[in-house]
Amino acid sequence: MLLSRVYYNNSLSSSAASSIVRPGGGLGTAIRAALFSSEADRSVLPIRKHFKPLKTPQKSKDILNDPLWNKGTGFKSYERDSLGIRGLLPHGYKTIEQQKERVIRHLEKEPTAELKNMYLQDLQNRNETLYFRTLVDHIDIMAPLVYTPTVGLVCQQFGNQFRRPRGMYFSRYDRGHMSSIVHNWPHSDVHVIVVTDGSRILGLGDLGVNGMGIPIGKLALYCAAGGIAPHRVLPITLDMGTNNPALINDPDYLGTKEPRLNGAEYYDMVDEFMQAVFTRWPNVVVQFEDFESTKAVGTLNRYRDIYRMFNDDIQGTGSVTVAGILSAIRNSGGNIKDSRIVCAGAGSAGLGVCMQIIDGMVHAGLTREEAKSRFAVCTSKGVLGKKDGKKGDPNHARGITELQEIWLNNSLSDGLSIAQTVKEFKPNILLGLSTVPGIFDEEVIRAMADCNTMPIIMPMSNPTSKSECTPQQAYEWTDGRAVVATGSPFQPVVYKGKKYIPSQCNNMYIFPGIGLAASVAGVTKITDKMLYIASEACVNTMTKEEIAEGRTFPNIMRIRECSKNVAVAIIEEAIREGLTTKLSKKDIQDGIPQLVQRKMYFPTYAPLISKE
Fold first, then answer.
1. Measuring CA to CA, how many Å separate 36 from each of 6, 29, 496?
2. 8 Å CB contact between 486 and 459
3. DSSP labels for 483-548?
4. Are 164 and 112 spatial neighbours (Cβ–Cβ below 8 Å)?
5. Which residues, listed in sequence order, are joined to residue 386 by a DSSP beta bridge?
6. Which domain covers residue 108, as residue numbers?
7. Does the structure show a pLDDT above 60 at 155?
8. By CB neighbour count within 10 A (0-12 exposed, 13-18 middle, 19+ buried), where does 9 fall?
9. Rounded mean pLDDT of the chain?
10. Cα–Cα distance measured from residue 490 to residue 312, given in angstroms and rounded to the nearest whole number
11. Same domain (yes/no): 468, 406
12. What is the DSSP string of 321-339?
């Protein structure tokens, strides 16, 4: 019996048993050798880390009403006793996996994306851990529901669907008091703020405080894709008023029904806001989101050298566009130094994106003037070109802005249509930043196909309704030869029996990694070089299989790996530039990738005990 128990407990094979029971062999010695050998093998296994219990100040009904602590039916028996909630929940216990499956079943029953988003809002308001776990494990289906394209609809309906406040709001009537108001926020360790003034929400224009859906959606992606814990993020809307008559006349609109602040008053309010948040949270990074173009450029230039901040519409979109271009060029066998780009869209934010592509070309070896000569930028009046009278010089007649002046291409006549520009300029990349749906029509796309073996088509505007063309059109009009990256999500396309997978050129491949780097290392400034390195890190995350599928970005299910790689690349560059404040030798002794991985939040239920 002893022998059989030893064999069972140590999983010895029949051959091992026969070697122990042998003529002249010491049975006891052999058994002891087997036991000690097994224990020795076990001793070298890595020590499994177990969750430390978290002490919560909440008890009884309060903990069930706090989404940061609530587990719903996920509270174990001992937690129900110690936290005073036994009897306040049904007896049945569900793991987070079982709860997540229930969430997915509910989502499948909702008939529209808007109703799915509302269900997810309710889930976030009652159980943030389950909400973010569902987001992490099903990011492919969840991201379009919590952000583009669904978030546009959510913002438009924000007033009449308002249920529960999330984040903070600062209006013109709070001026002079912001430094005290920020202390109303209950969390003292905020790492990332996303702020909007609601003046240019996606391609929908001025939505005022209804634009709060944008910071909320962005920060959901920070948590899920970037591994920032939910209690360390803060969505904020600056209520500057609105110039949208429909909102002023809307009885459900919750913002200030007065014309927008402008000029010195506007910047004075933003100045006060920035000083207030950085006084309370000195290590925070602030992401500016969906500010109208002139304010986007103005605030970026005003604060980028003073505060830890960046503008996602300019720098995030620019970085992810560079990543898409680098990846698409690799797929088509080209080089960014040899690229020629026609860009539809000449707003200040779009031109900021183009400038980051210029930076990428310069990084690759071109001079800045050489890089600029590779661009042809089109406004609603046609290409920005030389004033020769051939097309009536419509841009010059309207007036060339200071921002547009540097983009004049003297090899082209001012006012050429996009199709004419493509035919004359012969670009290999067609970039859409116009928010004009369908502007890349059949003539334009076929002209791209005529001058390229594998034309790169990038309709970047969102939401989906604002896209310059669809992937289906791009593939059909190029006979399946196009490399396509889009700003909004689209389904795979089957053309002539072949499946094509257009990648979404989504800022979420970049901005969560920027925030993660700032959070982990205290990066004091987001430099242009960091943004280019982030683009490279995103591209280098791709696998051979993803490249073979025709993708230009990693599979969205690997977004956390991409965010980690972006963060690591930015931190390494920040160390080289001397721009970190949080890192010690001990922090990085195992390597920066290991440090970043350790710091990334993963939503799971930790054991809870009462502080009392």
1. 12, 11, 65
2. yes
3. EEEESS----EEETTEEE-PEE--GGGTHHHHHHHHHHH------HHHHHHHHHHHHHT--HHHHH
4. no
5. 413
6. 57-139
7. yes
8. exposed
9. 91
10. 22
11. yes
12. HHHHHHHHHHHHT--GGG-
Residue 606 domain flag: no
Kindly report the CATH number assigned to the domain that includes residue 264: 3.40.50.10380
Q: How many domains does the chain have?
A: 5
CA distances from 352 to 318, 346, 348, 385, 434 (A): 7, 9, 6, 19, 13
Q: How far apart are the first and last CA of the chain?
A: 51
pLDDT of the residue at 478: 97
Which residue, chain included where needed, has tokens 């430390």?
52
Highest mean pLDDT among 18-22, 144-148, 608-612: 144-148
Residues 105 and 201 in one domain: no
Examine the domain organization and report whether 439 and 520 are in the same domain: no
Give the residue from 257, 261, 283 showing the smallest Cα distance to 272.
Answer: 261
Pairing of the two strands 498-500 and 493-495: antiparallel
Question: Residue type at 14?
Answer: S
How far apart CA 66 and CA 62 sit, in angstroms, is 6
Name the nearest CA neighbour of 226 among 575, 571, 554, 519. Answer: 519
Question: 255 with 340, same domain?
Answer: no
Catalytically active residues are 147, 218
**pTM of the full predicted structure?**
0.86
In terms of domains, do 275 and 416 share one?
Answer: no
For residue 579, tell me if it sits in a domain.
yes
Which DSSP category does 130 fall into? Answer: H
Verify that 491 and 519 share a domain, yes or no. Answer: no
Q: Does 51 reside within a domain? A: no
Long-range contacts of 21-25 (CB under 8 A, 24+ apart): none
